[in-house]
Amino acid sequence: MKKPPTGSLTLTRNAYRENQQRADQLESQMKALLEAHYPHLLEVYGVKTITASQLAVTAGGNPQRIHNEAAFASLCGAAPIPASSGKTNRHRLNRGGDRRGNSALHRIALVRMRHDPTTRAYVERRLGENKTKKEIIRCLKRAIAREVYKILTRPHEAETTVPDGAELCALRKTRNATLSDAARALGTWPARISDIEKHHRPLPDIANRYRPFAVERGGVSSQGARALIG
């Protein structure tokens, strides 16, 4: 087998570098646009610039035309399709919708299944319920579509003040409450409470509901909590 001419290798290498630089420039431009129009989309766990851009493109220039999160899930091909038979209640993957948007949701789901403790615990629980991996991914994609829809249609809503995680942690401890106690009261997972307290993820909806729980009968004011952590 003949070796390619040295000149050809040089041209190929230079072309690769130029294309990589161009790709990096385009990604930077996309990130700037996302930060301007959907400032909180990149904060979603597992979402990066490319997947965020694709979801924004799928939603279109006027996401408000999508009347609810179920419609957005259907647009992305993430809405469940009933496939029950007899006493077996099942749903199957939707092969319709925008396949690129569906692919973006799929990549986010895979990232969470590998790295997010909450998602991994969910997967284990669902496997214990005899759900298949495909069914679990379908459920995850549906949940992610719901999460993304809220950001795409209300991009600046999450800019409200989020309680400080360390302060919430101090308030919780004054109640002698565990992470599990807080999670149970708020209907979420302990890992999410930990994420809020450690500033891993803002999760404003949960954080704002967390404050009333933390201060209820806690005997310590917010100022007192700040003194405890200061």
From TrEMBL:
GO MF terms, alphabetically ordered? DNA binding; transposase activity
The organism's taxonomy opens as: Bacteria, Bacillati, Actinomycetota, Actinomycetes, Micrococcales
Q: Which residues form a coiled coil?
A: 9-36
Q: Which organism is it from?
A: Nesterenkonia sedimenti
Domain Transposase IS116/IS110/IS902 C-terminal, first and last residues per copy: 40-123
Keywords per UniProt: Coiled coil
Protein name (record) = IS110 family transposase
GO BP annotations listed:
DNA transposition
